[in-house]
Protein 1
Amino acid sequence: DDDPRARRLAASALGRVRTAAAEAALTPALALEAAPEVRAALIEALGKVGGERALSALDEARAEEPSGEAGDETLGRARLRISRTLGRSEPSRFLLDRAVKRATPVVLRCRGGLERLLASEIGPALAPRLPIGAADAGRVEATLTGAPAALLAARTMLSFGFPLPPQRLAGGADASPDAIAHALAAALTSDEAVELLRHFTEGPIRYRIDWAQGGKRRAVVWKTAHEVGARHPELVNDPSGSTWEASVHLGRGTDGLRVELVPRFEDPRFAYRLGDVPAASHPTLAAALIRVAGVREDDVVWDPFVGSGTELCERAIAGPYRTLYGTDLDPTAIAVATKNLAAAGARANLVEADSLVWSPPEPVTLVVTNPPMGRRILRGPDLGAVLERLVVHAASALAPGGRLVWLSPMPRRTAETAARAGLVALSSIEVDMGGFHADLQAFQRPTGR
């Protein structure tokens, strides 16, 4: 068409078709087009259509494009889109069982407040180092000498990653997009990063960028991906099919930029989690409750708010027990918990009942639970009264020496109630629940009572 606007709109429309025929139509058009605005539309459309033919056409166009022009960025984005599409045809995975070549720093993440529990789980062999300040809450540093699979022994761990050397960045989070992109690209293409990515990746190396402080920063992501691709074409930025996540932490003032390479893989620790309900605990939180409670071979365990059965599953995995009981008012929760417990190989007695009234038919040695609170199901002024009633009821169900281990959003109030009910406080840990805090409290009924 003689009208550039018509050609531009046609190119944009073909980009939405995303077929081989559209690619065949767009590719020769790019070589013949002179109007800048139409060329830009053709380049963007080819990036959406994808394919080897489109990539060759873009490479030819790039050779003719003056470096630093606006079209160069458009070409870079289009090439990145095609690289993502082509790379997804070949599977990629993180090699969990491959040992490091040498002692390697690693960062383990958990909920804030559980750092000591996490450090105790991985043991002294990995030389765990606890956070110094509040800014590093939920972070435990260690040294990996074998395969990353060993880290999965820590059931309170949310994730792990490999820290890269920090990059100088004046202004930190307030630095310009170009400065942040340049520093981030330098981290991702450092010798340490490239060696880790190549060593632990089978198949194409695909990564996504995640900002620890939140936000998208799309302009920075595009600039970073363009610069990384220019230095190491095998490193492909792909947010939807990545084997790695580059977790970016921007410091304040001149603290600079820190990156952790976090592998993405199917976590075998919680394979029992076949179903879920709105009030269910995250498995790492359930594991923390069990870690504090400890394991006794003769344990009779009761979870008053069983939800999807996560606490009981974690208790069954932790070691031998005599009996597991769980109650919930929701029949759907009972059905989901039944399925999850079977997947965990656990034997449990689940009852659809009111936990403030029902009691197990035998003395209980461990009451362990995460009651609904915060953004979960149970809200309102009655929450405190319900928690107090549960403490009193649980205390009456406990055998001498029995433990109550749970999470309380009103720790002072529930601790006072526990004392009045004759329970002795063993420990209390403030835990970040994501938007609010609760205390992981442990109480015990004295053996003489």
Protein 2
Amino acid sequence: MTILVTGATGFIGKHVVDELLQLQDCEIIIPSRITNLPVHWFLDARVHRKPFDFENMDAQINYFEYFERPDICIHLAWPGLPNYKDAFHLEKNLPQQYNFLKNLVSNGLKRLTITGTCFEYGMQQGCLSENLDAKPDNAYAKAKYQLYEALVDLQQQIPFQLNWLRLFYMYGKGQNPKALFSQLEAALERGDETFNMSGGEQERDFLPVETVAKNIVEIAFGDEEAGLVNCCSGRPVKVKDWVLDYLEQHQASIILNLGYYPYADYEPMSFWGDTKKLDRILNREITRQTE
């Protein structure tokens, strides 16, 4: 089976590729401008890099053929994060992403798994289920949701399987340096006495990136279309409690300077994901694999 993974050199992408490499009979196609891929990828004959740049995409090229007729595309690419409010998400990323994906399915791709965002729910609070109306409140979330809607419309013209995973709060190795996890690890490595953060009272839904990658791969390989799915833990945790728990687990100590940063104005104070659909899908996959 041939798997096309866009955004493979990003935070989630590296973990997704590593998850795929644990599977048998899996060829992985990586479209990238980057040549210095992880060493263990170069040593694995199943990983193939194909030069590609969204900026220079040519509508006349059949990208399904160019990327060796993949059985599945796991689409993770999305430039410009974490600048959630910037208009380029709508003006640039959205049309580029749609044109690329339409090119793939128009030329034969049958199975497409894409990462969306919990920000598609907007400023709604509490437990967020897939049945809630999307109310995106920033440019990034609006662009993501418009892409989802456009692909659902495209399915009426061209049959293909679409899985859309709304990611909640991931953490782990390789995350953006501006992320809470990265800043905390950097502060501990420097031996800082204090760690500047927000008040920490906001409730979030945290999930290790390794678990996120595993969920993405399992859903992408599912026989049935999953559609819209929350990828989350389903457990609300206050940010300061998550930091304290992380410190305890790693036997580390640092004084939390709570309230140093203001709360973000692009997200509600308290929200987490409903996992009923995710659990049902993963349980079905586990059952199918053990039969």
Protein 3
Amino acid sequence: NELVEVFSSLDGQERLYLDDIYYGGGTVEKDISSKELAEQVKRRFPDVHYMGDRKSIVQDIVKKAQSGDLVLVMGARDVNQICKKILESLKSD
């Protein structure tokens, strides 16, 4: 619920992409998916995207990014890999 609240407070100039949730094991409950989270956020913030794979996310960011935009990537696991792909793709465009 806290993530829905925070993501729903984004303004109209922002775009939100959600990758699959990384579950690191332990006793974490797997009671929501990124797709479900995106559906809940979309009720109050329409520019949220769940695409199911990182390649699609990178392609969409690169396609829509304009000079002066800030791309902020947050996450766990190997999130740095998506950062490299976005940066390389933006540099080649």
